[in-house]
């Protein structure tokens, strides 16, 4: 194939997208000059990244701390059996595959545990943040960073056959902190309750559709409602949450101080002296239903559950995790705080 022929065919790459009137050539030009940060390279992150790369977003950064495992292949669409065999870091395996899909997009893979300092670096020059995380501590960091720098972000979550998504627009919509306690945003995890890929695909379709609207200059078409659905039960609900916006919200209110960017409100991790144990304390107070937690973990076939009125102990492989009613977890069997956080988010959400 000659360079001239290849160039001509490359020119047709986005022709079907450009023929869609709301996007057109001008919208496609906007997309090619956009910069998107994707936090997380799991099921949601890989689906989001592939769609945006195929759509011609100019620059994409994808950050993740984990590596590819065999259980990921059922729903994390960018990875191969070789990636799982080699335990490739997800961010680098994703970058490789995405660059093969569209070499004209600048794809950056960052292998990192995204905390405040890392996120501060990652959001510089980003036009949009895509949530593909597996825990609310990171989402609350994203939320406050979004408000601080006035960068929109698109939340997404799924477990079982259930999915949920919402587009946060600083200064226009309530923020995640406003919604806490108002709508059902959290719950079980994929490792405890399973997940079907169709739920993932529905969430990423809605997340990326919102991203395309915003980045192509069609913000007036944004949904502006919280969408939740269950693809197995055929339930779809669109909720107007405008009334949840709080003037005194510490994250987005008139006197915002971005509490989740402060050390006092971060999830705390401590390596216990003389022991292969990490203690993790949640960023906010909670009162767990220990019976529900024990029942959830008891349904798994990969570990041993023991419980009393004060705590639940869950042993899987070389690790034993003990969770208390206040949300504090002791992870026995490691001194690696990032590994401990991964385990806690996997089994306790």
TrEMBL record:
<protein>
    <submittedName>
        <fullName>MoeB/ThiF family adenylyltransferase</fullName>
    </submittedName>
</protein>
<dbReference type="GO" id="GO:0016779">
    <property type="term" value="F:nucleotidyltransferase activity"/>
</dbReference>
<keyword id="KW-0548">Nucleotidyltransferase</keyword>
<feature type="compositionally biased region" description="Basic and acidic residues">
    <location>
        <begin position="10"/>
        <end position="19"/>
    </location>
</feature>
<dbReference type="InterPro" id="IPR035985">
    <property type="entry name" value="Ubiquitin-activating_enz"/>
</dbReference>
<feature type="domain" description="THIF-type NAD/FAD binding fold">
    <location>
        <begin position="14"/>
        <end position="250"/>
    </location>
</feature>
<dbReference type="Pfam" id="PF00899">
    <property type="entry name" value="ThiF"/>
</dbReference>
<keyword id="KW-0808">Transferase</keyword>
<dbReference type="InterPro" id="IPR000594">
    <property type="entry name" value="ThiF_NAD_FAD-bd"/>
</dbReference>
<feature type="region of interest" description="Disordered">
    <location>
        <begin position="1"/>
        <end position="28"/>
    </location>
</feature>
<dbReference type="InterPro" id="IPR045886">
    <property type="entry name" value="ThiF/MoeB/HesA"/>
</dbReference>
């Amino acid at each position: 194939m000659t360079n001239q022929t290849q160039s001509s065919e490359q020119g047709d790459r986005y022709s079907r997208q450009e023929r869609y009137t709301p996007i057109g050539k001008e919208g496609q030009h906007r997309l090619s000059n956009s910069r998107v940060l994707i936090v997380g390279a799991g099921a949601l992150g890989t689906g989001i990244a592939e769609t945006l790369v195929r759509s011609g977003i100019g620059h994409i950064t994808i950050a993740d701390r984990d590596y590819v495992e065999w259980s990921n292949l059922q729903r994390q669409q960018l990875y191969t059996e070789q990636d799982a065999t080699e335990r490739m870091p997800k961010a680098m395996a994703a970058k490789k595959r995405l660059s093969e899909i569209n070499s004209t997009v600048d794809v950056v893979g960052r292998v990192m545990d995204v905390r405040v300092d890392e996120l501060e670096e990652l959001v510089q020059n980003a036009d949009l943040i895509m949530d593909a995380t597996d825990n609310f501590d990171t989402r609350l960091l994203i939320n406050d960073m979004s408000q601080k720098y006035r960068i929109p972000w698109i939340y997404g979550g799924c477990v079982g056959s259930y999915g949920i998504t919402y587009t946060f627009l600083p200064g226009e919509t309530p923020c995640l902190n406003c919604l806490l306690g108002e709508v059902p945003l959290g719950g079980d995890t994929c490792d405890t309750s399973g997940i079907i890929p169709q739920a993932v695909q529905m969430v990423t379709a809605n997340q990326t559709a919102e991203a395309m609207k915003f980045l192509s200059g069609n913000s007036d078409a944004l949904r502006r409602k919280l969408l939740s659905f269950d693809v197995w039960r055929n339930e779809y609900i669109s909720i107007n949450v405008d009334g949840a916006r709080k003037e005194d919200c510490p994250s987005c209110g008139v006197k915002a101080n971005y509490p989740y960017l402060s050390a006092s409100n971060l999830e705390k991790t401590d390596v216990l002296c003389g022991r292969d144990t990490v203690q993790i304390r949640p960023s906010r107070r909670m009162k767990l239903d220990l019976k529900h937690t024990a029942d959830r973990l008891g349904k798994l076939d990969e570990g041993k559950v023991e419980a009393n009125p004060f705590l639940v102990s869950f042993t899987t492989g070389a690790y034993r995790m003990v969770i208390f009613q206040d949300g504090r977890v002791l992870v026995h069997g490691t001194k690696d705080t990032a590994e401990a956080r991964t385990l806690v988010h996997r089994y306790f959400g």
